[in-house]
Amino acid sequence: MAIILGGIAGWIAEQIMKSEMGVMMNIILGIVGALVLNAILRMLGVVPPDGWIWQSVIAVIGACLLIWVWRMVRGRTA
């Protein structure tokens, strides 16, 4: 289920950020994005909401954050 939701979240983030990533990268972005944003929220003292809908929203936001960070890093080194 994580792979499917991660792929969907990654695809939505890809559309929002107007990037071309591919299916495998969408899955990775969705899953890692959810993990990263959940960790950030916990460090800030915010308890991430439960449920697959909220976690899907968190995955999309996290994936967008990862794409943004990648663009910032790539832009500085290029």
From TrEMBL:
Q: What is any Pfam family matched here?
A: Transgly_assoc
Extract one GO cellular component term from the record: plasma membrane
Q: Is-annotated flag, keyword Magnesium?
A: no
Query: Which keywords does the record carry?
Result: Cell membrane, Membrane, Transmembrane, Transmembrane helix
- Membrane topology of the entry: Multi-pass membrane protein
Segments spanning the bilayer are 21-40, 52-70
Q: Where in the cell is it found?
A: Cell membrane
InterPro entries, per the entry: Transgly_assoc
Q: Does the keyword Hydrolase apply?
A: no
The record's principal subcellular location, in a coarse class, is membrane
Spell out the family assignment given in the record's similarity comment: Belongs to the UPF0410 family.
Record-linked PANTHER family: UPF0410 PROTEIN YMGE
Protein name per UniProt: Putative membrane protein YeaQ/YmgE (Transglycosylase-associated protein family)
**Naturally occurring in which organism (per UniProt):** Hansschlegelia beijingensis
